[in-house]
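Hey L., structure's done. Input below.
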Amino acid sequence: MQNRIFLFWFVLVFCATMTSLAHDGTDDHAHVRTSPHDNIHTWTMLDSETTIAGTFVDLRDGKVFIRREDGWVRPVEIHRLIKADRLWIESRQCEIVAMNTSPEYVFTAQRGQSAPGKHDAPAIADSFKPFEKAAKVCWDEDYLYVESNGMPDHKMMVGITAWQQQVPLPQNYTGENAWRIPLHPVPAKNPMSAKDNFFRGAIALAVNGIPIFNPIKNDGRTDTLLAGELDEFGGHCGRADDYHYHIPPAHLEKIVGKGKPLAWALDGYPIYGFQEKGDDDYSPLDKWNGHKDKEGSYHYHSTKTYPYLNGGFYGEVVERDGQVDPQPRAEPVRPPLPPMRDAKITDFIETKPGSYRLTYDVRGKKGTVSYTLASNGSVAFEFVSPDGSTTAEEFSPNRRGGGGRRPGPPNGSPPPRGDDRPPRDGKGKKKSEEPKSASRSDSRSTKNENQFDVTSSSIDSKGMLSVACTCDGDRQSPAVAWKDLPKGTKFVAVSLWHTAPDQEKSYWVVYNIPADVSELKQNSGNIGTLGQNDRRRAEYDPMCSKGPGVKTYHITVFALSQDVKLLASKASRADLLEAVKGITLGETTLDFKYERK
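Output:
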């Protein structure tokens, strides 16, 4: 077998080398691998409807590589293809993942054969069979790969009473961004607790393809279930509009059967349902919420109290930036919104394929968020607030991460929840009330995900910005102070911005502020790195409102796990929002007002 594999790779490398010599001047061939699908396929561009005839070669970095009939390999961004072509790619991505991780799989797949013995379906794959339409699996010698779109086949969001205004959007957990579970878990020499770690990202994957996050949110103390943040099935949406669970999906036991895994922890050990006296393996659980069965195999169990599922990792995992690494990325289409006070979600339905409506209630008045997914990846939203006013927004993948316009809460929405809800510890008990934000009476500090305070001595008791910080005065940058940053914060970034009727405007960007700095004083200019304002200048751009009336502006402070990798000459607000994705431990936005005299 080894000789045959060597011969195959020799022929493949030889052919690729000859092809690159024949088409000298392009490096597209440097990393491509031959596809098991050799038939010519006609690819159609979404924007121009032009076509490319060729065979699939490779998939990486959001691009599909197509070998044209003349031998040239052309990279095409996947989102530029029509929906039929994107579905064609998705239907083959599991095979692509295995092809790119196992030479033996490539060898057998090229010839249309079944993989040899050690590539037979692992037992773990059986767990996902009841949901094979939603959770596609493939494997190599080391991992099971699971693809899904992150949308479960049950009603979502209903029952949530602490809502961040996020809604479920499909995610691209496919190909290189698929979930992976070790097939040969190894007990860790120093197991890590989920009570002190892993507050970001998933810690397990349910057998229906939905990720499961730590029951404690990333402030390190709030129990999401007890705080009213979860729906009837134990899930909600994150900042990227990505749906996920925070407690075990116990409802799946009716489908998979008693005694079958409901989920798999990302260390490779299964998670079963609740223990009952009389069960064959009934015995006390360890501090990770697991134990060994009679055969000596380790597994976790669900419990109705904290930690609910795996309370850490009995097995080996790699921790990086507060989460298990690697794991799939959720991609936001729109910026996150602040919490909505007193809102309770009462209904969520799919009105037609690709269209959804979420209904919520605020003190007896109904509001809705309706949205439709387009084939090019864009999402059109319509917000109907409790007072009956309507606003509309559309976001496209090209504006992901908040680079585009950010709408505020629907008109007439109640003020954000802010810090009026006491945090809870890991056992769900109320902690003592923390001091209210020192923000002035008419300014508002909106805490998103993590809890920390942002204040400004440049804002008066009515929430109005000091004239000295505007173009009517000395044009000084405002004072900004913060405290109680999340654990693990290494750097801080600050953005001052404003949502105009047709665009989002940026006035001030400062980043790579060391975490031991707790404030920027008024007219500060020697701390951190200055980014670009909308005038493309590395400086503070003071408010000079031209229209009549009071305007609302925002200062957002980001707590980051590492420094921002940006050149100052290319550090606009949009660039900053893109750069902090994946390293943001928490953020707080302070609202203030200004009226041009």
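The domain at 439-597 is CATH 3.90.280.10 (Phosphatidylethanolamine-binding Protein). Confidence is low (pLDDT under 50) at residues 1-38, 101-118, 399-442.

-- N.
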